[in-house]
């Protein structure tokens, strides 16, 4: 074959390639050159915030004020710990309530 | 001559021909524009679609964006099969050939430096997903709690299972990233992908790119394959070989080489 060096068969590419993988690369990676037609891809309005996040590197997203993942338990360890602490607290309270008075307020007459 | 010039990539001159059936953006098969020691890969595209105003509105059309991104990537893929391309960002457009030549000349040194650095290397993408704690414990939670205390115990167990899952996933991802970095010339960590767009199941906890010599790619792929079934509830996904998108920046990084304006 004409391939310079051996390459394994492609994984997850071709027509079926994950759109997110392609957009992530063609919109956010690669060399940025100011051509004659000047478009800042990150200014495009209709790309939703989430689409922007996926195509924007973390720093750029932060610049744009997109930082929801920092408080998203699924994406941030920090937020996850906070979430767990909160839930723990909630459970302790419920447990205390249940164990102390058998939830007197909810007692049916 | 009417039409604008859409530039996909810059490469060193290469002998082999591109795959015949590569369509190119706007249906114009890619042409090679040689200037000094470099080749720009370009398509002629209509002003009606690629001048600033129409291009801006097209980019807001997700279908157009998808088709264009796939066409762009298809050309880059075809180039990757025969040489080491330096991929440019989507929608890099010049008025005419001479505009492209001027750009190539201005950036000649940095292009050559980067091409040298990337020569004979490709990018592999590795993502790690973890099934959400809810999915994991859905089965366990099937039986109805008999009492409030039972309910709380179940809930606590679920929380603990979730936390353990996350810890395992994080340790797994860290270990995998270290192992793969050891086999790669360079590595980049990208922001996790949003499952709403990628359509992938589970949460993306690692989204990394590795720069690997072609000759070592087979071993690299095998290494990834071997880790795949290591931990239940964790999924490893490999994509590639890509052109070295994540490593094409001036400083070998993903930093913008944008020149003060946008």
TrEMBL record, chain A:
It holds the Pfam family Gas_vesicle. It is found in: Gas vesicle. GO terms for molecular function: structural molecule activity. It comes from the Bacteria. InterPro entries: Gas-vesicle_GvpA-like, GvpA, GvpA-like_CS. Residues 74-101 form a coiled coil. Keywords: Coiled coil, Gas vesicle. This is Gas vesicle protein GvpJ 1. Belongs to the gas vesicle GvpA family. One of its GO terms (cellular component) is gas vesicle.
From TrEMBL, chain B:
It holds the Pfam family GvpL_GvpF. InterPro entries: GvpL/GvpF. Transmembrane segments: none annotated. GO terms for biological process: gas vesicle organization. Keywords: Gas vesicle. GO terms for cellular component: gas vesicle. It is found in: Gas vesicle. Belongs to the gas vesicle GvpF/GvpL family. PANTHER family: PROTEIN GVPL 2 (PTHR36852:SF1). This is Gas vesicle protein.
């Amino acid at each position: 074959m004409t391939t310079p060096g051996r390459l394994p068969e492609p994984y997850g590419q071709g027509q079926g390639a994950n759109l997110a993988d392609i957009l992530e690369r063609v919109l956010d990676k690669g060399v940025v050159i100011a051509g004659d037609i000047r478009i800042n891809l990150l200014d495009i309005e209709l790309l939703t915030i989430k689409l922007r996040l996926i195509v924007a590197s973390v720093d750029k997203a932060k610049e744009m004020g997109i930082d929801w993942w920092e408080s998203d338990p699924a994406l941030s360890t920090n937020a996850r710990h906070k979430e767990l602490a909160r839930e723990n607290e909630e459970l302790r309270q419920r447990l205390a309530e249940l164990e102390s008075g058998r939830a007197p307020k909810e007692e049916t007459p | 001559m009417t039409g604008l010039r859409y530039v996909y990539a810059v490469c060193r001159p290469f002998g082999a021909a591109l795959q015949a059936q590569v369509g190119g953006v706007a249906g114009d098969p890619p042409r090679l524009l040689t200037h000094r020691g470099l080749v720009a890969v370009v398509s002629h595209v209509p002003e009606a679609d690629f001048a600033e105003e129409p291009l801006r509105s097209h980019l807001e059309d997700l279908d157009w964006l998808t088709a264009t991104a796939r066409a762009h990537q298809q050309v880059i893929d075809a180039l990757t099969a025969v040489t080491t391309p330096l991929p440019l960002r989507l929608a890099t457009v010049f008025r005419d050939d001479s505009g492209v030549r001027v750009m190539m000349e201005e950036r000649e040194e940095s292009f050559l430096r980067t091409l040298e650095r990337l020569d004979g290397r490709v990018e592999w993408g590795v993502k790690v997903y973890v099934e959400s704690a809810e999915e994991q414990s859905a089965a366990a939670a099937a039986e109805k709690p008999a009492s409030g205390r039972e309910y709380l115990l179940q809930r606590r167990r679920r929380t603990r299972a979730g936390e353990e899952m996350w810890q395992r996933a994080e340790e797994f991802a860290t270990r995998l990233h270290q192992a793969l970095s050891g086999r790669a010339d360079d590595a980049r960590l990208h922001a996790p992908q949003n499952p709403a767009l990628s359509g992938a199941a589970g949460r993306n906890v690692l989204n990394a790119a590795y720069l690997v010599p072609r000759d070592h790619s087979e071993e690299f792929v095998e290494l990834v394959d071997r880790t795949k079934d290591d931990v239940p509830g964790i999924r490893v996904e490999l994509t590639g070989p890509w052109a070295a998108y994540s490593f094409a920046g001036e400083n070998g990084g993903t930093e913008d080489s944008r020149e003060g304006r946008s």
